[in-house]
Amino acid sequence: MIMVDSRKYIGAAFGLSVSVPPPQDPDWPGYYGDPGAVINRFVFDEASNFLFEGGSLVLGHRWQGTGERWDESGVLAHLMRRSREFRSFRPAMADPTTGKVPPAIVNLLAWPDLPPPESEEEPWRLIQEGILEIRQVRPEGVDPAYLDRADSRDAARALLETPAGEYLRIRSLTAMRRQLADLADFRICLGGDFGKASRRLPGVIEEALLACRGGTKPLYISGAFGGAAKALADCLLQRELKPGVEEMFFTPEPIVELMSGLSAEYPAVDEFEGPSTRDGWNALEWFQGVSLDKLAERSGLSTDQYINLLATPNIERAMAWVAGGVEKVLRPGSKS
Amino acid sequence: MTRPPLFKVYFVYHGPDLPDIRRHQAEVEKAFEWVRQDRSVSDLDEVPDVWERVRFKSIPDKATWEAEECMDAFPIPTLFVVMVTDAMASDPGMREVLDSIATLMPKPPESATCDLLAFSFSSLALGKLPPLFSKRQVGLEANLGESRIAPHKLGLIALHRARPLLGAKLKPKDLKIFISHAKSDGIFLAISLKESIEKVPELDPWYDASDIGNGSDWISGILDAASSCIFLAVRTNAYEQRKICREEFMTALLHGVPIVVVDALMEPISDSSPLPYSCVPNVRVPDGNTYRILRVMLREHLRVLLMQAMALELLPPGFSTRVWPRLPSPAAVKRACSAGKAENYWLVPKALCYDAEFLELRDRLATGELAISLEHLETFRPLPVIS
């Protein structure tokens, strides 16, 4: 009997910060065509591979897609079916002390988004089987009774139209991303749009910030798909950013006002929850001060390799660096 | 995902000639097409296919040619199929296109990643072009009645010419088509296939009665050919009952050569078989169209070569890899390992693996003496080396 399990990522939790970037310049060497279709396919392939190799995923994904019901043709639905298939042929990885099997996919939702109701058969079956965990994350220090008022989509919509609701949604997103950072052992940032007008920071940038903040977990950023991750890569490489791109690292003025107005009533946990402004703390300066050597070291790569990861316009090559770095972190003595 | 092509086919013709050459164009395009498996399934359920990365492009005029990427920038294997006509030879714009194609042809052609397949309706037209076009003309019988180069033959020749471009290390015998059959009931189809192959210029069959010399050891001759040629099994009722046929098939499996099965069973229901027919492409020809078999055969070989090219794309220098058309059996693993020199990576297409078997085999290889890493081709990610 062979006493070996050669799956590469057993027990490792991966956080993927990926969203569709703005359209690219067709003359850019990394131009890859229709961003929506490409990103969907890419996320599915890479995430399937992590699951196949024994890893788990930590996501902050809207289970409804663009509609009201469970998005059965969405990436999350496909990934869950995939993780169900992969479970059948290897012993489950139960925790030795509790005997509990960790879920293959943890999906966090920011208040007021609600987990799927029991009437949504497919996700509920997977939740019962322990493959999926979906839960809502709420901001700290806020009266639960107030947050409980968003118990339906209509009630949530109504609350979000109030300044407090809008502010608490921003805080919830940050709290969710904070938990995503805590739960994931590895974070991979790709693509990413400029974010909505009501954002604190674009999702990909905020997730990278919170993952980087702890100073211990591997963080892989690739500019290959362009968007926010490319801006982040350029910032880490101390390249000059275009004025429009630079705005990604700052909170829009109306949101700064909103956050300042309500911060006394609902105080932020620390500066990483506050607005990013030109005259105060800001994400741009923070990232410019990050040491590439340290980032590379904790990601299992040399500094040269990390610079290659940041700069390459070839996504396959970027993912090869990620795979090599992850392997090095998980198995420090490995060849690569 | 839109990734750079692994192979390019340019179909060059004179725009106004399109009504005459439309069928040739369709056949060449069909030879290299990517057939999506099932359009009713979601995009995410589709299995990645190397044929997605073959680019077919028609060049009807100078403007289209000039809009193409610079050939020097991407050393991607490329085949030019040029339909030469009198009108084309007299058109100054097209002459410029043809001259620039001629300058792209490397010398000697054997070591090239670029080839030219000229097809002419007129020897006068060919005479007006650089001599290279006459040298790479598909055959002199181009206009002669039944044996002329009909569109379907042009498609096959294009597929054949693509093989050395993708497989630089291929020897002439690796390109031959081994016809494995039972003499008792498969000889008729086997002879028909042999003749069909011989009628296509440049294609070469391996047929026991013609290719084994007098007085030589015929069993070792057969098994030697089965281990290197591409393998065509004519599955008749007697096929798997013949020991030598089973051995031929197993030898081809052990060596990981491309295999295609021609299903020539008389009954609609077949018994369980000792041979794993379902792990290779199967073709039926109820209409007797043997060219369909040849197209599937050449495409299967090209699929393996495209997979190899895909692996090489990511492989860092100093590492070696071997692509298997399907998950190797324990016997194939043992044979490959007993040879002593092993590659760093073995790659298999994800779509053709059952995950549990794949992982078990990977465990065995990882703990074996040669420490080979078994990977899925589509997710193969070796750490790149900085040059």
What topology emerges from the helices and strands here?
The complex is a heterodimer of chains A (336) and B (387).
Chain A: E1 13-19, H1 35-52, E2 56-59, H2 75-87, E3 105-110, H3 121-128, E4 132-137, H4 144-148, H5 153-160, H6 163-183, E5 186-191, H7 203-213, E6 219-222, H8 227-236, H9 243-246, H10 253-262, H11 283-288, H12 292-298, H13 303-311, H14 315-330
Helix pairs in contact in A: 1-2, 6-7, 12-13, 13-14
Chain B: E1 7-12, H1 18-31, E2 54-59, H2 62-67, E3 78-84, H3 86-90, H4 92-104, E4 114-120, H5 123-127, H6 131-135, H7 151-166, E5 177-180, H8 183-198, E6 205-206, H9 208-211, H10 218-226, E7 230-235, H11 243-255, E8 259-263, E9 282-283, H12 290-314, E10 321-323, H13 330-338, E11 345-348, H14 355-367, E12 373-376
Parallel strand pairs in B: 1-2, 1-3, 3-4, 5-6, 5-7, 7-8, 8-9, 10-11, 11-12
Helix pairs in contact in B: 1-7, 7-12, 10-11
Polypeptide structure, described:
- Chain A is α/β, with parallel strands linked by helices.
- Chain A is built from 14 helices and six strands.
- Chain A has helices spanning 35-52, 75-87, 121-128, 144-148, 153-160, 163-183, 203-213, 227-236, 243-246, 253-262, 283-288, 292-298, 303-311, 315-330; strands at residues 13-19, 56-59, 105-110, 132-137, 186-191, 219-222.
- Chain A has a six-stranded parallel sheet, with helices on both faces.
- In chain A, helix 6 crosses helix 7, helix 12 (292-298) packs across helix 13 and helix 13 (303-311) runs antiparallel to helix 14 (315-330).
- The longest helix of chain A has 21 residues, at 163-183.
- Chain A is globular, with a radius of gyration of 20 Å.
- The mean pLDDT of chain A is 87.
- By secondary structure, chain B is of the alpha/beta class.
- Chain B is built from 14 helices and twelve strands.
- Chain B has helices at 18-31, 62-67, 86-90, 92-104, 123-127, 131-135, 151-166, 183-198, 208-211, 218-226, 243-255, 290-314, 330-338, 355-367; strands at residues 7-12, 54-59, 78-84, 114-120, 177-180, 205-206, 230-235, 259-263, 282-283, 321-323, 345-348, 373-376.
- In chain B, strands 6-5-7-8-9 form a five-stranded parallel sheet, sandwiched between helices. Chain B has a four-stranded parallel sheet with strand order 2-1-3-4, with helices on both faces.
- In chain B, helix 1 (18-31) crosses helix 7 (151-166) and helix 7 runs parallel beside helix 12.
- Chain A binds chain B through residues 2, 4-7, 32-33, 37-38, 40-42, 44-46, 49, 52, 73, 75, 78, 85-86, 88-90, 304-305, 308, 315-317, 319-325, 327, 336, and chain B through 1-3, 42-45, 48, 313-314, 355-356, 359-360, 362-364, 366-367, 376, 378-379, 381-384, 386.
